[in-house]
Amino acid sequence: MVPLAPRGNRPAPLVFRQGAHAPYGIRWYGVTSLYGHLRNFVSRAIATQSVDSRDWMRANDPSELLAATLRVLHGDPTQPSLVEGLGRPVYIDFVADTGDDRDVSAAVGEMVASRFDVDGRELPRGEILLFGGDVAYPVATADEIYKRVILPWNDSLRAARSSQTRRVLLGVPGNHDWYDGLDGFGRMFRRRVDEPFRADAREGRTTRLVRRLARRRGRKLGLVARGLHLDEVGGILGAIPRVFRGVKAFVTGVGVHRRRRLVLKGYEPVQEASYFGLRLAPGLELWGADRQLGRVDFRQRTYFKSMRADAPDAGVLFVAGDPALTYGVDNEPGSRMLSACKLDFEEDDVFYLCGDFHHYERRKTGPGSIHVIAGGGGAFLHGTRMSPYPEPAGPPDCVYPQGFMSRRLAAQVPLKLMLGRAGFIVHWAMALLGSIEVAASGGRASLAASAAFVSLLFWIILNVVCHQGTEKKKTALLALPFSLVLGFMPMALRSALPNVVPTLASDTAVLVVFAFLGSLVFGLFLSTAAVLGYEHQQAFTVLGHPGFKHFVRMCVHPTGRVEAWVIGKDDALAPGLPELIDHFEWQPRKGDRASADVAENI
Predict the structure, then answer these.
(1) Cα(581)–Cα(594) distance, integer angstroms
(2) Is the peptide bond before 62 cis (omega within 30 degrees of 0)?
(3) Which helix (H) or strand (E) element contains residue 263?
(4) Chain centroid to CA 19
(5) Beta strands 116-118; 2-3: pairing state
(6) Strand 128-131 vs strand 167-171: parallel, antiparallel, or unpaired?
(7) I want to staple 345 with a disulfide (CB 3.0 to 4.6 A). Which of 75, 156, 369, 438 is the partner?
(8) What does residue 453 show for φ and ψ, rounded to 5 degrees?
(9) How many CB atoms are located within 10 Å of the residue 103 CB?
(10) 602: CB partners within 8 A, 6+ apart
(11) Residue 59's closest CA among 272, 318, 291?
């Protein structure tokens, strides 16, 4: 049992350990990330044509899902709620935004597989493991989920020696899961009907060999390979046969072979659709919603409307792939989901639990409602807000990492982007746009005109990059001086370099220098936008930071009260024990009398 001490407010370490075993963390400004961006574009194009996999799903009736859950947990499937069927409180683990760096993923899996001691109280592993979306990156295909989640987590689960105990697996999808049309998601979370529980726990020789090699290979070799960007080279080489197989399948009409099942040891999936409802306790229900890449569909709205009609006063633990509030402002995808399910923070008792943003934040959102973001399951860090929180939301009750830690990390963005830490797409883009200006001839007027044109292109690009921010007008104003610097920099370099460094007088040298200096300016724009609170995600995408990982362990009591512990670690790969990031309770206001009566009987 692992002792769990409060983390407190001490500063985070200055240096964090990177994973040293493939697959490494995604470089979001690298060539291999283009695969994810392309799948995003294609998936959204398909979604706009109303091609929706949810139309063909048969969602579990809540009583059916409850009975299946209780059978896995050896409870009484005839009882009306989970705690009544088990005759005791039930523990649930929540984790979101998981599969990225293999080593970090294994460290998170180890935390989830652990039992903890808090002031003499045991926190056992959750009997339900609940994923909150974005199972793997850049696209949650079956192969990516297998390499980045299943293999490393199963290693951790084996080490815990508790896979003999059957637990329940549930999940809601995020946008990266939908980039694959939920194929990988379904192979992990959909109920098995055609094979025994342990049938696909067997491993082939290749899998066992890869695992042994990963354990034997030291950190130094892996870190050198990543430092030389061999992960990018390998990703490109690996993409070539994938493209060939896809083209061949398209021409011949033969499907591409995929993994049959994705099995997390000791866990059994029970759901039939990407959304579900489960009665946890009298007066408390668990809702898992799915907005696909757009909105909650009509079948899902009808499903939750029926649940609400059966228990109009019940509190709702609402699990979604998107937050309803981010950085103190409304987040349209999540708030739209809440509205579509006919829930309101002010009028209802809602515990909104989500990921998508890769940090932790808890805030009170109404008389009986709270909003929790817990997206620290393995993906790169999204820092928390560094500027004052807007009114009326105000600051949250707890954040991790704290603003001053995020500010210190944001200061590293310009230099690391220039050095290619996130990949070299920005450098290539700088060289391409700079070539327009360098190619101009015909005197200063022609150069000035081309510089003005390139400045306009940069201004458009900077605004597009920050399109997810809420301060559109302020972002546009901030982008103006940066776009002018970037637009006129090639002309200035072309004039200055021959005088300063005669050996760099060629146009090629100008473009190379501009590629790196321009990337520095671009990184400075991203970090400035983040510090000012205009756009928070892109700067931290550059860093690909592996720190501040966490998950939520909840205890649902017979009264409907939910007790929650947020367990995490600043540097998941460094020596040391996980720590307690936050501890809170939530009690639905309505239906307390019925819950109290049941609690007395239990």
Answers:
(1) 33
(2) no
(3) none
(4) 18
(5) parallel
(6) parallel
(7) 369
(8) -65, -45
(9) 23
(10) 83, 84, 87, 88, 558
(11) 272
Q: 3-class SS at 315?
A: strand
Reduced 3-state DSSP string for 413-461: HHHHHHCCCCCCHHHHHHHHHHHHHHCCCCCHHHHHHHHHHHHHHHHHH
**Does residue 205 register a pLDDT over 50?**
no
- Asked if 407 and 488 count as a contact pair (C-beta separation under 8 A), the reply is no
- CA separation (Å) from 171 to 273, 297, 380? 10, 18, 20
- How high is the pLDDT of residue 172? 97
CB atoms within 10 A of CB 481: 12
As a whole number of angstroms, the distance between CA 494 and CA 511 comes to 9
Which residues 6+ apart lie within 8 Å of 34 measured at CB?
Answer: 425
Nearest to 564 by CA among 247, 300, 249, 352: 352
Q: Which amino acid is at 508?
A: T
Contact 303, 275 (CB under 8 A): yes
Q: What is the Cα–Cα distance from 448 to 205, expressed in whole angstroms?
A: 63
Show the beta-strand stretches assigned E in 559-599.
562-569, 579-586
Q: Which residues contact 464 (CB under 8 A, 6 or more apart)?
A: none
Give the C-alpha separation, 525 to 484, whole Å. Answer: 12
Q: Could you read off the pLDDT of 541-586 as tens digits, one per residue?
A: 999 999 999 999 999 999 999 999 999 999 999 999 999 999 999 9
Query: How does the average pLDDT of the chain come out, rounded?
Result: 87
DSSP string, 1-44: -EE--B-TTPPPPS--PPP-SSSPPP-TTSSTTHHHHHHHHHHH
Q: Report DSSP letters for 325-350, one per residue.
A: EETTEE-HHHHHHHHHTT--TTTS-E
Asked if 77 and 121 touch (Cβ cutoff 8 Å), the reply is no
Angle at 50 between CA 48 and CA 55, to 5 degrees: 145
Place of tokens 């995408």: 541
Say whether 168 sits in a helix, a strand or coil.
strand
Of 562, 534, 522, nearest to 466 by C-alpha is 534
User: Among 26, 16, 18, which residue's Cα sits nearest to residue 231?
Assistant: 26
Of 287, 259, 285, the closest CA to residue 275 belongs to: 287
317: Cβ–Cβ under 8 A, 6 or more apart, which residues? 280, 284, 285, 286, 287, 351, 353, 562
CA gap 466, 474 in Å, rounded: 11
Helices 425-438 and 472-500: angle between axes, nearest 10 degrees: 70
**Nearest Cα residue to 383 out of 554, 190, 193, 539:** 539
DSSP, res 265: T
Cβ of 14: how many Cβ atoms within 10 Å? 6
**Tens-digit pLDDT profile for residues 73-121:** 999 999 999 999 999 999 999 999 999 999 999 999 999 999 999 999 9
- Is-contact 57 189, C-beta < 8 A? no
Buried b (16+ CB within 10 A) or exposed e, 391-410: eeeeebebbbbebebbbebb
